[in-house]
Amino acid sequence: MKLNLKSLSLPELEQALSAAQPSPTAVRKVFAAVFAHGAASVEEVCQAPQVPRRVAELLRENAEMPRLEVVERRRADDGFVKYLFASPLGGRVEAVRIPIFDEKYVVCVSSQVGCALACDFCMTGKLGFQRNLRTWEILDQVMQIRAEADRPVRGVVFMGMGEPLLNYAETLRAAQILSHPAGFAIAGPSITFSTAGMVPAIRRYVREGHPYRLAFSVTSAIPEKRIQVLPIEKAHPLPELVDAIREYATVRRERAMIAYVTISGFNMGREDALALKETFEGIPIKVDLIDVTDPTGKYLPPSADELKAFRDHLQILGAPIARRYSGGKEIGAACGTLEASQYGGVVLPPPEAAG
């Protein structure tokens, strides 16, 4: 089996190259050539400065650098760009390039082909679960988007297709490489994993002390409501999830990010705000309000008046409340709409064909 250079952390790469007896500097140069500099081929890595001949010979004989195929790029009016990728291992996934003012990009990546959690308002969940992505497939989404970007990529959010904590080993290895100074050099707190509530994985994450952030999808603090849209409530009931969130906030000494998908006429009342207050009493939190985006029309986002009234109700929390912008709606790039789809916006040509 070939040595996949896009799947190895720095310690793993050092072990893989041990037969060539490289210096720590030589190992780091290979690692940086792959991830920091985005080498396009094994030969390009071999020709990087300070890669010894014996290491280059080992790489030429044993290494590979697979690549996702960019099926297309679609740009929405608000500047969001959705990439549709096909993998040689099978399946299609999407990633979204998110503009942050005029300064930088954040990339929303997928961690699975499809998703097993079947959240009722999420188009990915309607695809069902096909497989976990491997580390290189996650990283290649960022690598290819970064290579075409006109400004730096400064953050990554695991909020695309799939539940990242159900692909724990591969997503955490990807995050380690993303945050390594000789890798993508993205600050740990600028990498976020969104989870619908995989409690055992959350507890493991806290024990291991990772520097990345978690965002917890709650959507309702009333269990009878939550179970209607988030079937994971059956496996990991809200009290169990709240205990894990309390541990996370305590250990990290920071507010836990509670993602709350706002659905008109469903979870926007005073009773919903009171349930949040009672459920998270004594836990430092911040609440991200996210408009539901459901192409089927079953769920609708709140009106401006409904949202304002709910934000007023939420003042009883005494916690920061933010409304997260859900961009790229017309191209199927908004929260909950990723389904390896092709519609809307402007189809962008490959960089070499531009102009």
Features:
355 residues; 11-stranded mixed sheet; two-stranded parallel sheet; alpha/beta
What does this structure look like?
The relative contact order is 0.12. An 11-stranded mixed beta sheet has the order 14-13-12-11-10-9-6-5-4-3-15. A two-stranded parallel sheet has the order 1-2. A two-stranded antiparallel sheet has the order 7-8. It has helices spanning 10-16, 24-35, 42-46, 53-62, 123-127, 135-148, 168-179, 199-208, 223-229, 232-235, 238-252, 270-279, 304-313, and strands spanning 3-4, 63-64, 69-75, 81-86, 92-100, 104-108, 112-114, 129-132, 153-158, 191-195, 213-217, 256-262, 285-291, 321-324, 346-348. It is built from 13 helices and 15 strands.
* Strand composition percent: 15-25%
Radius of gyration: 21 Å
Characterize the biggest β-sheet: 11 strands, mixed
Overall pLDDT metric: 95
Broad shape: globular
List the helices and strands and how they pair.
Blueprint: E1 3-4, H1 10-16, H2 24-35, H3 42-46, H4 53-62, E2 63-64, E3 69-75, E4 81-86, E5 92-100, E6 104-108, E7 112-114, H5 123-127, E8 129-132, H6 135-148, E9 153-158, H7 168-179, E10 191-195, H8 199-208, E11 213-217, H9 223-229, H10 232-235, H11 238-252, E12 256-262, H12 270-279, E13 285-291, H13 304-313, E14 321-324, E15 346-348
Parallel strand pairs: 1-2, 6-9, 9-10, 10-11, 11-12, 12-13, 13-14
Antiparallel strand pairs: 3-4, 3-15, 4-5, 5-6, 7-8
Helix pairs in contact: 6-7, 8-11
